[in-house]
Amino acid sequence: MAAGRLHRAKHRRATNTTLLEGPRIVAEAAEAGWNITTVFAAQDHTDGLSIATAAAASCGADLVMVSPAMLKKVAGTEHPAGPVAVAEIPASTPPDPACDVLILYEIADPGNVGALIRSAAAFGFDVIAIGGADPWSPKALRAAAGAHIRTALRDAPARLAELPHRLVATAPAGGAGEIGAAGPVALIIGSEAHGLPPEVMDEAGEVLSVPMRPGVESLNAAVAGSLAMFMVANTAGRLDHQH
To answer: Which residues are bridge partners to 40 per DSSP?
Structure first.
């Protein structure tokens, strides 16, 4: 089935489409006005079927009934949470100079990419992806739990210095333990294995490190990036502590 090919990056690029899996993200994407072309549902997924029907009707998408085995093949997961939809990838836009932005620099793991996009939505950051895993892969979308709908993915600049933001690099150690409230900030998270290269560290005017107890070498990229975003957003007074 052609939809199953969207697990491969080259087919996503060729068609500018991806897969959305699960009732929540399919319903939210339809409500947000995403261009959904096809919705797959299995007859025995009662809840998923009702959402699939409503989403297809609101988007003018084709509703395709499939067997559980075929839904599993389309979704690419062992126990798919239907429905599964084929959706056009929304166009990225230039960075908003008034909004903090998270820069994913060569983050290779799609699960970490998705988790960071989820945190970016929670802490009020837009997202720029430079290299690394495709933020529109089904794995990244699942890890983000619908956050792609609630935050903006922006165009990558030719050079980080072109951004109208304070460039703040992150490092496991050696950086400041807090950041001033003046913004907007472009917070740069490096790859899990290598961190940020020297040229990126040189471009950044500030370096932020998450304070940790002695003897701990580093944190997972998604955890470190999420904590760093919290530090920036909390200092800026953007968070709702009553939530």
So the answer is: 64, 84
* Cβ 103 vs Cβ 187: under 8 Å: yes
What pLDDT tens digit does each residue of the chain (243 aa) get? Answer: 689 899 999 999 999 999 999 999 999 999 999 999 999 998 877 777 888 899 999 999 999 999 988 999 999 888 887 899 999 999 999 999 999 999 999 999 999 999 999 999 999 999 999 999 999 999 999 999 999 999 999 999 999 999 999 999 999 888 887 887 667 999 999 988 888 999 999 999 899 988 888 888 778 999 999 999 999 998 877 776 655
Amino acid at 47: D
Between the CA of residue 108 and those of 104, 140, 153, 190, 191, what are the distances in Å?
Answer: 9, 11, 17, 10, 7
Strand partners for 17: 88
Non-local (6+) Cβ contacts of 71 within 8 A are: 40, 41, 42, 45, 80, 82, 84
Cα torsion angle, 211, 100, 27, 74, sign: negative
| Separation between Cα atoms, residue 182 and residue 184, nearest integer Å | 7
What are the tokens at 200? 């990126």
**How many other C-beta atoms can be found within 10 angstroms of the C-beta atom of residue 45?**
18
Question: Please, is 164 exposed, middle or buried when counting C-beta atoms within 10 Å of its C-beta (0-12, 13-18, 19+)?
Answer: exposed
Separation of alpha carbons 156 and 46, rounded Å = 41
CA proximity to 35, closest of 16, 52, 54, 49: 16
Nearest to 141 by CA among 124, 153, 158: 153
